[in-house]
Amino acid sequence: MEAIRSAGNSRRAGVQPLKTPCYNPTAMTPSPRLLLTIDYESWFAISRRFDSLPTEKRFALDESYAWNAIDPILDRLKDAKTSFYLVGELVEWYPDLPQKIFDAGHEVGFHCQVHRPLNSVGEIEKDLKASTAWRKKFNVRGFRAPMINTVEGVYPLLEQNGFTYSSSLYAPTGTILRKGNIWELPVSTYPLFGKPVTFRAPRRMDLPLIIGGEFPYGSSLMSGLLPKIVFKLIEKEFKKGLSPVIFLHPYEIVSPSNWPARFSQDLQSNPILYPFTLNKSSFLNDLLRSFPISTVEAFVREAAQ
Ligand SMILES: [Zn+2]
Description:
By secondary structure, the chain is of the alpha/beta class. It has helices at about 1-10, 25-30, 55-60, 65-75, 90-95, 95-105, 120-130, 130-135, 155-160, 205-210, 220-225, 225-240, 265-270, 280-290, 295-305, and strands spanning about 35-40, 85, 105-110, 140-145, 165, 170, 175-180, 180-185, 185-190, 215, 245-250. The chain has one domain (about 1-305): TIM Barrel, CATH 3.20.20. It contains 15 helices and eleven strands.
């Protein structure tokens, strides 16, 4: 039902509804599950200090963290099929990284070639061009914008570049949008004062979203601050037949060495980043024990049938 309601809202917002017309919600709503996603990026990606450095400098800063973290993360996930949105320059640094994820049965998605705010069509176009070869090789279909912050103009570009879906907005769980030929499956929020009526990008974690009464529990910022409440919300949504979309980062599962001391300068200048440095592996274990999990790509494929 949620998908229908959201589709109705999206119609008012000027984007295409899920299917036209939607007479039977159960026929198109896949079984509820947790859509666990990992934005796979280096330990410094949430800082903006290193965005404009040459890639070799970021590679040196990474100190093999992104490569060393992948096996312990895959071991922890076992058979829980997860969507990994990979920062493309990590594939340049560690060419076997996507194959490892793929061989373990998970989805290889895209989190931009270089992790930084991408707010213009021209910049996104350039970034997509830089990643064409490896995306093709791994048949990448899913897109997650850095900082869950994008623009409406991204959707035609995603279509031109072979994507089928994006997960680059925040919106209430159960919202499934069609943006041209691209599905948009937003990161979950819990609306406290009724459903929003527009779903245009950007819908990011900012003051208007919070003032509008949406609790963005799908963000790892929230599972860092309030893990028990986030777990309860996931449980509640799941019981309603919904499929929450949440994300974690590798550095929240496998702590880098000297952590978070090596990030102290950033934490001092931007204390809001602190919850991203907390280790969430026991929260992840609770999720893995409690919910069926699938990739977003599998969910979208089922929804599209
Ligand atoms: Zn990111």
